[in-house]
Amino acid sequence: MTNRMLAGFADVTLSAVPAEGAVPPPDYLARCRELAAGYHMLQQQLPQERPLRAYLLFDAWEGNPLAAELSEQWPEAVSGREAVPDDFYAGREDEAPCLVPVPDDLLLDADSDSLVQARAQEALARWLEDTSKQASQRLARQYLCAVLFSPESAIRVAQHLALLGFQYVPGSHTARLFRYQDPRVMQRVWPTLSAEQQNTWLGKTQAWWSLTQPWGPIADLSATEDSVTPAPVWFKAQRCAASAVPATVPPLNRLMNATQWQAAHSSPVGNRVWARFAQRGIAAQTQPNAASMTRLLDKGQELGLVDSNLQDFIWCSWRPILQSVQDGIVSKPIDWDAPLWRDVLARVLQALRDDPDAGFASLFEDREQFA
């Protein structure tokens, strides 16, 4: 997902940032306490000689609205900031993903009850609330991506992330910059990875926590500065126990198969399609649910469709549902494996191969009469 894609909703969403100094809602403070408790639980599982460290994973430092507050309140933590050493960002390291040690004040255990801890947790809760509002906009850039727990130094973790971010496209010799830090990318692909792949992704990192990203119909594209966004639960990616049966460990830079690679890059398309439904005033209950969207994405990607053609494929697949709502009848999305629709699809795909500049939607409209 490129930064250009991340800016794609600028014309249909409003910035939603709480007023400075606002007291964060209790559910975000609860997420902070859960984070601290998770850290201490993981710490107890490691040998005493290997203390666990926690790092904030940021999408970038340049332009990061949290950079100033962190620098002012926790300069010692910021002095340990480590940019991921990626050649793509050579000479402009502030634009690279980076790690900042989590200030100790944010990780005090539940028995600690000090003003310093309370203020620190309020700051983190505000950051989480801001991040959640960005996530609710679906394609808005999120600067605070995750919290990583690892016994390794920031330098070692950053070196591992640099390798993770240099992925070869499955079935090719082409390498691409992989946005592992984006929680939308990570959360779409993580459930599809095997235990060995998940451990390879993490390296020495014990856990990778991020706020759960929305994946489903969009009810309303508008947002206001004082709108309330309930705190999402933590998405907790953690190391799997070693299997008694030796397994093949995939190379870090060839981590995913084709299906997993597609899943990792499916979030922008799915969210743009849901936005398209919402922009046209289609109720959330009439839009594809999460499972339906995932199935249609899988089918479209299986056909080799990408970008706008993939979006059009999903839209056209759902047209019978939209028509049935208008007509007051019950219908289903197009079954592309049914003989009549399979023939129409073959005609459309052939026409698209003959004229790559033609769009799937217009070609479908010209040929759906054959169904």
> Low-confidence parts, pLDDT < 50 over ≥5 residues?
1-19
Task: Output the strand order for the largest sheet.
Answer: 2-3-1-4-7-8
Beta fraction of the residues?
Answer: 5-15%
Distance between the termini: 36 Å
Mean pLDDT: 88
Multimeric status of the protein: single chain
Radius of gyration: 23 Å
Structural class: alpha+beta
What is the total number of structural domains? 2
- Specify the helix fraction band: 40-55%
Q: Main beta sheet: strand number and arrangement?
A: 6 strands, antiparallel
Number of helices in the DSSP assignment: 15
Annotation, overall tally of beta strands: 8
Topology as H/E string? HHEHHEEHEHEEHHEEHHHHHHH
Shape: globular
What can you see in these coordinates?
The protein has two domains: 3-255, no CATH class; 288-370, no CATH class. It is 43% helix and 9% strand. It contains 15 helices and eight strands. The protein has helices at 3-6, 26-44, 67-73, 75-79, 115-136, 154-164, 183-189, 195-202, 258-264, 267-279, 290-302, 307-317, 319-327, 339-354, 360-367, and strands spanning 53-58, 82-83, 98-101, 144-150, 166-168, 175-177, 207-211, 234-238. The strands form two sheets. The protein has a six-stranded antiparallel sheet with strand order 2-3-1-4-7-8, sandwiched between helices. A hairpin with a 6-residue loop joins strand 5 and strand 6. Helix 14 (339-354) crosses helix 15 (360-367). The chain is globular, with a radius of gyration of 23 Å.
